Amino acid sequence: MRVFHYINQNLTGDVSLETLAGIANYSPFHFQKIFLENVKETPKQYVVRLRLERAAHYLKMYRDLPVAEIAIGCGFSSPSIFSRAFKNYFGISAESFRKMSLLEISTMSKANNKAEEPSWLITQSDEWQKIQISPPPVIKSIKAMKFACVQTMLSHPESIYFSFKSLLQWAIPNGIVSDSIKYIGILLDVPFFTPLEKCRYLTGIELKEDIKLKAGIELIMLKDGKYASFSMKGNYQETMNHSIALNHSYLDDLGYDMKDFISYEIFDECPAEKPYETINKTILLPVKAKR
Predict the structure, then answer these.
(1) Same domain, 41 and 144
(2) CA–CA separation, 229 and 282 (whole Å)
(3) Global pTM?
(4) What DSSP character marks residue 180?
(5) Distance CA 124, CA 11 (A)
(6) Is residue 117 part of a domain?
(7) Which are the contacts of 53, defined by CB distance < 8 A and separation ≥ 6?
(8) Number of independent structural domains in the chain
(9) Helix residue spans in the chain (DSSP H)
(10) pLDDT in tens, 166-182
(11) Average predicted confidence (pLDDT) for the chain
């Protein structure tokens, strides 16, 4: 978890094999071998994939941002290196990718054996418009909160449940759990460009006081700022689709744009005690005012 947390926090910085191996307290040779066995990618392949997937999101989210700026902002040392890596991975140039619809990207991804979008994921405007969020989303100012988090992948329908179960095994003996504590889920990827089984998801429990975290648990901050917010019940497929609909069908009228593609969900009840789909969740998406 320490290595994954470091990569998440430093994706555009020093994520060399030597640095990651040092964090894991292994030699570079043994670290790469263990990482490959567990993740099915080498550390370099994993980092490059995350950078390219982030760039793909930015190309679609920030249409006026120059490709060269996206390249550098996503951790590539030069626009030319980024361009080669992007075309190598997606089979098309970044400029052409930006002009494609999500449906066209989905078709291309299937043809290239890249991320095949799940059948339930909405990709067209007429589908977004059919989703009614009630009550309608609002813009909220959220104060910073800190959470103890562990990372899981959405490779199994019960991944979120078991991840919270594991987190509680540490939290309960340490006196962290109480009726006022908040539980959070943080979706770091969306299966437009990332295979669902590789979508990273953080499960977390609020920390009211400083406490020493055990190996595998990391401190994550929900930052001060403006968030588009709405409440809902449903499985994580419905949660993702409602979040997509919020971005494409509601934010314009609210006068805001997405600030990042990471989404947060605050649970009204402990997700280790009830099925995910039965719990009311407050969805938070970071936003910025339109210029």
Answers:
(1) no
(2) 7
(3) 0.90
(4) T
(5) 30
(6) no
(7) 189, 193, 194
(8) 2
(9) 2-9, 17-24, 28-39, 43-61, 67-73, 79-90, 94-99, 102-111, 125-130, 159-171, 236-245, 251-254
(10) 999 999 999 999 999 99
(11) 91
